[in-house]
Each structure stands twice: as structure tokens, then as C-alpha cells.
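Hi, here's the filled form for the chain we discussed.

Project: internal
Contact: R.S.
Residues: 198
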Amino acid sequence: MHVVRPGENLYRISLHYGVPVDRLIRANRIDDVHGLEVGQELRVPGARRTAPEAPLVPLEARSVPAGSREIALRDTSLHFEWPLRGRVSSSFGARGGHHAGIDIPASEGTEVHAAEAGRVIHSGRGLSDYGNVVIVKHAGRYATLYAHNRRNLVREGDFVEKGQPIAQVGDTGNASAPHLHFEIRRDRLAQDPLLFLP
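And the returned structure, exactly as it came back:
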């Protein structure tokens, strides 16, 4: 059992225990993924870890030191590519709260491509205000997240190649216009994608 504490959501809980979000939703008959309440008890079937001692607080940016593009690239042998070409309308960092990635506006239906090869560990809804989301786990400690998609083109468990179409741009979730919200995460902590992109 997991007792929900302030700042936690289903995605963070699922990452901690190594249990898919969909399984948590089914096991607890959750109708509204945004309706978790502090103190609520959740069954976690197949948990790979014990309950945390401290709250699973919201992801915080742990960007590498100033002038650190070289450090970021030296940290991984992965070579991330842009998932979508276009201007960045909202950058990483503070924006009425913390913005954990970059936003790239595009026409609805534009193809979104995998920034690196990896395995799809989430495809669907259920992650806060992100709408329709794809998350790809890459070699080592990295994962990429592609949010607000109109349609996902891959399923959980699929292996994808760098550059493979994995979604279509949309405005699902908390989005006022079609765009891609893109994140690069190291050990589940959001990094500034611009430090890794060519």
C-alpha cells in the first residue's frame, strides 16, 4: 500500500515502485487521475520497491553547471536529435512554476520522431496535464518524453529507432494550441534538452 502525500501523482508513484500507471489505475479503480487526495491509500500490485520514507516530490530540474553543454554531452554516449523541427516557444526553467522541457509549436498532425533509439515505457494518458504522452527509455540513465500528442503511433513495450515517427502533434491535456512538449530526463530528473540537442 502507498499513502499519497503532498506533491505526488500517479506517474511519480509508478516510477518509484516500477509499476505501470495503467496497472495502478486498474488496481485502485481510479476514474480521475487528477483526483488523488493526500492521505489516500493506493494498492501497488507487483511493487519492486518498498514505500518511500520521504514524499515523492515533483520533478525538479537538476541542470548541469553553467556553460555545461560539454559536461552534459560527456555524461552520455547517446546522441539525441530534434524530435520535431521548429522554433522553441517556451524554454526549460521557470515559467510560472517550473517548466521541465521545451515547447515546439507545429501544425496538428505533424509527425514527432524519436530523439534516440529505445523502448517505449508509456504510451497514453494519465500523466497530469500532459494529455496524450509517449515516454521512451534509452540506454543508460536517460528517457525522453513527448506530450500533448493528438495520436500516439507506438505502444508500451515497442522498440523504436532514432528518427522513427512515434506520435502526431496535438493539443491534448493542458495545451492552448498544437505543440510538442519535449523533455529529456536523467535518472527521472528533467534536464535542459537544449544542452543535448545539436
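Let me know if anything looks off before we file it.
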